[in-house]
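User:
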Amino acid sequence: RNLVTSLVMKQMFQATTDSLDRRLRALWEHNVQVAAIARVLAARIPGLSPDQAMLAGLLHDIGVLPILTHAENSPQLRGDMITLDRLVVEYHAQIGAKILSSWKFPPSLVAVAAEHENLQRDPDGPPDLVDVVIVANLQSYLGGTPNHAQVDWSTVPAFRRLGFDTEVNTVEMTEHQDQLGEVQHLLDT
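Assistant: Predicted structure:
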């Protein structure tokens, strides 16, 4: 089921204009990278399913799609990337949660869409898919996007909740490059 969902997701990331197509491709590549990292991370946490974590990584930014699709049909938004970026940042998590809820995804995946940008999230209970996706999302931005690349990981409760030392686990991800590559290849084919 997760593989079928992944294939359907890839088809959704296609646009009719070149500029939007570039953004959707970049978003798809980001989601695939987060999915691969999430799968590897979840395999190390008892009680979490690597396959569910991979799906959570693919779906975490689903709320960006309708915003970009709307922009494709709006000349004003298409020409104003600053406003478009602001709309994405402000609304994609909320929209994503509504989409996954309406599609009857489990609450654990709806929570991922809703809360993956909440870096200070620190609920009671065991670590969950939101924690995994928060960490995977941050790790995917290493050396990249300034907003996330400058976050002090030691202040993000998801790392502690997963039992990860922020210094050690950055290095450990390089040990899993083969696994990451396999998952990325699977999702990109």
